[in-house]
Design a protein that fits this description.
The protein is elongated and about 60 Å long. It is of the alpha/beta class and about 325 residues long. The strands form two sheets. A seven-stranded mixed beta sheet has the order 7-6-8-9-10-12-13, with helices on both faces. The protein has a six-stranded parallel beta sheet with strand order 2-1-3-4-5-11, sandwiched between helices. It folds into two domains: about 140 residues, Rossmann fold, CATH 3.40.50; about 140 residues, Response regulator (Rossmann fold), CATH 3.40.50. The chain starts with a helix and ends in a 6-residue tail after the last strand. The protein is about 45% helix and about 20% strand.
Length: about 325
């Protein structure tokens, strides 16, 4: 009888220890977060910085970051994500759609937060997406109201009737934006021509062709275009073909106007989500995708002045890197 009692007592103690262990998983001394950014450009850089600042504000020295940039190379992106999985990081930030897709396919256990991702249903091929991915994935979206982006053409350059829409065919969310904007533009009586390229090597030829055939250009929040915006600017501006862009960083590099969000704020919001997950305050499987709360009409004063485009009230001038 004493032996049986001892065994029961030992079993109870082990269960108690296990329960205690589970309770303390959310109060670790340190956390390691892997950050993969598909390539360097203003918007993605700002999102990464905002994410880190938020987590540091919430967790202080408890969090360390492994920050990697794939340089626009999908094979490098895969290598980076696989290294995070092998290292068993506590959470992965997937900055941009291709990184999210890679991480989604690499692990079903490590929490993954996306940012600078336009539409999660499209990116992850989820039918009837309801706003929550479930499983080990959530994040923030940079989707701006595309009908309002399209409306910039009739508001700012109503005499431009043939619109070229340019994007990288490797980016599913770029196609999503272009398809939506094309529909809005055609409903407004515009003629649209879609131009795609596979990577930066053929971007110059595609942009040159688009500028020669169109009155104005639209580019969505496409990472390749954002990184090589100067290629488009070098052919569009001399031809006096105005470009409307999906976000502010691209606009500063060669656009006339945009309806944009703060990517720093978007990254910061993602960092707050990460802190809740790491501290055990929220389950990622139950966290809906969050969206930017504010959108601002902005314009590139230098290029608008050069092209003779008058900007109405309600727009904010941005600093420009374009010469």
């Amino acid at each position: 009888m004493k032996k049986l009692f001892s065994l029961l007592l030992a079993g109870t103690m082990m269960l108690g220890m296990a329960a205690c262990s589970e309770d303390t998983t959310s109060t670790k001394d340190t956390y390691t977060v892997g950050i993969c950014q598909i390539q360097p450009h203003v918007a993605l850089d700002a999102a990464t910085q905002g994410f880190q600042d938020a987590l540091k504000a919430e967790l202080g020295d408890k969090v360390t970051f492994k920050v990697q940039d794939a340089g626009g190379d999908q094979s490098a992106c895969t290598t980076i994500i696989n290294s995070f999985v092998s290292d068993e990081v506590d959470l992965i930030l997937a900055n941009a759609t291709p990184v999210l897709q890679t991480a989604y396919n690499a692990t079903q256990t490590i929490p993954i937060l996306g940012t600078s991702v336009t539409e999660y249903g499209v990116a992850l091929d989820i039918d009837n997406f309801n706003g929550t991915v479930g499983g080990n994935v959530s994040g923030t979206s940079d989707l701006a109201p595309l009908d309002q982006q399209a409306a910039l053409f009739t508001e700012l350059i109503p005499d431009k009737n043939t619109i070229g829409l340019i994007y990288c065919s490797a980016e599913a969310n770029s196609k999503y934006q272009v398809d939506k904007v094309k529909g809005y533009l055609e409903a407004a009586g515009k003629t649209c021509k879609v131009y795609t390229f596979t990577d930066s090597n053929d971007m110059s030829g595609v942009c040159t062709n688009a500028v020669s055939e169109c009155d104005a250009i639209y580019v969505p929040t496409d990472n390749t275009v954002a990184t090589y915006m100067s290629i488009l600017d070098q052919v569009a501006r001399p031809a006096k073909v105005p470009v409307i862009t999906g976000e502010e960083g691209m606009c500063s590099g060669g656009g006339i106007a945009t309806l944009s969000i703060s990517y720093y704020d978007l990254g910061y919001a993602t960092g707050l989500m990460a802190a809740k997950i790491l501290k055990g305050e929220a389950k990622i499987s139950e966290m809906p995708i969050e969206y930017a709360p504010e959108f601002t009409k902005k314009y590139n004063k230098a290029i608008c002045d050069e092209l003779g485009i008058t900007i109405p009230e309600g727009y904010t001038a941005i600093e420009t890197s374009a010469e």
